[in-house]
Design goal:
Layout lengths: L1 E5 L8 E5 L10 E9 L2 H7 L9 E2 L3 E9 L11 E5 L9 E4 L1 E4 L6 H6 L1 H14 L6 E5 L4 H12 L3 E6 L4 H7 L2 E4 L4 H8 L6 E4 L6 H8 L5 E3 L3 H7 L2 E2 L9 H11 L8 E5 L3 H9 L6 E5 L17
Parallel strand pairs: 9-10, 9-12, 10-11, 12-13, 13-14, 15-16
Antiparallel strand pairs: 1-2, 1-4, 3-5, 3-7, 3-16, 5-6, 6-8
Helix pairs in contact: 3-4, 3-9
Length: 315
């Protein structure tokens, strides 16, 4: 199969399309013919050598496609079903991928949108699960207008929580549309939150990692009521839990998101699409902060060759 790989650390130009052996699913897993795969910031961090140090490396943890091989014991999906989910060995940006965790793609979703969802909705569900967000609580989300923050706003609101979200002034109306009470970032943020909830909030989630943990702790009444997914050093300093995927994934959201979309409780994210052969350009746009939506690679029978990775055509 053709797959994205890099053999040295460096810029987007080190990315190649190479031939790798076809993978096969283990017990409880499925293999898909990939139609779309998500691109995340971890991809370019890996490529730059800031994460895993082994070489060569493939890329991609989330994908959507058509089931073409079943692992032992799989009975909940069948060959030719459309599914999306997680490729835990990080090789989803390829013609074939093995999904360890998966769910049927909701009928209303195309492959590209489905591939954009797993990482964001899992993270946006895991942290509220760990905080114990339920109906009737007041949750403050710091950094609520990004992909994960916006998903967290909607998913918490769907549980019946009162959500207060912080963002830049330009994104406040967007937060209101998602179901949050918006508060502007910056100096005076704590006072602005207290004006909305003089008694403080019940829980707080830090998505932005912008050094605001001391204020969140005060607003939520202690570090035990705060979780961050973005400030590891601050979590250690202030005794706040740092949420990570290896301490229990919220995989249940994969099978729940379809109903939330259908009911209008979850607005699907914008996606910016590139063919697999233009993965380098997707990295350039993502690293520069110029993405207009979640970056997604499409995969089909005509994925091109390795030298096309360096093209400059935008998606």
């Amino acid at each position: 199969m053709k797959a994205i790989q890099f053999k040295t650390f460096g810029g987007p130009e080190v990315l190649e399309i190479v031939e790798l052996n076809d993978p096969h699913p283990g017990p409880g897993q499925v293999r898909i013919a990939v139609r779309a795969a998500g691109v995340n910031a971890s991809d370019w961090k890996k490529r730059q050598g800031h994460m895993d140090q082994q070489l060569p490396q493939a890329l991609g943890y989330e994908a959507a496609g058509i089931v073409d091989e079943l692992g032992e014991g799989v009975t909940n999906v069948a060959i030719n079903d459309r599914v999306f989910g997680f490729c835990t060995d990080g090789t989803a940006q390829a013609e074939l991928a093995v999904l360890a965790y998966y769910a049927p793609i909701p009928p209303a979703l195309g492959f590209e949108v489905a591939a954009s969802l797993p990482s964001a909705i899992e993270t946006a569900t895991r942290a509220p699960d760990q905080l114990g967000v339920t109906g009737g609580v007041t949750l403050l989300i710091n950094g609520a207008s990004g992909k994960i923050g916006g998903a967290a706003v909607q998913l918490a609101a769907a549980r019946g929580a009162r959500v207060i979200g912080t963002a830049s002034p330009l994104n406040l109306e967007y937060l209101r549309l998602l179901g949050a009470e918006p508060v502007a970032y910056g100096e005076g943020m704590k006072a602005r939150v207290q004006a909305l909830v003089p008694e403080g909030v019940d829980l707080a989630l830090d998505v932005a990692g912008n050094g605001i943990l001391p204020d969140l702790i005060k607003l939520a009444g202690g570090p035990q009521h705060v979780i961050t997914i973005a400030d590891f050093a601050g979590a250690q300093q202030y005794g706040v839990r740092f949420s990570r995927g290896d301490d229990g994934r919220a995989l249940h959201v994969l099978s729940e998101i379809g109903e939330l979309v259908a009911s209008g409780k979850f607005t699907l994210p914008a996606v910016q699409i590139f063919p697999l052969s233009e993965v380098a350009q997707a990295h350039r746009i993502g690293e520069a902060g110029r993405a207009t939506g979640k970056l997604v690679l499409t995969v089909n029978d005509q994925v091109g060759n390795s030298d096309q990775c360096q093209g400059e055509k935008s998606g």
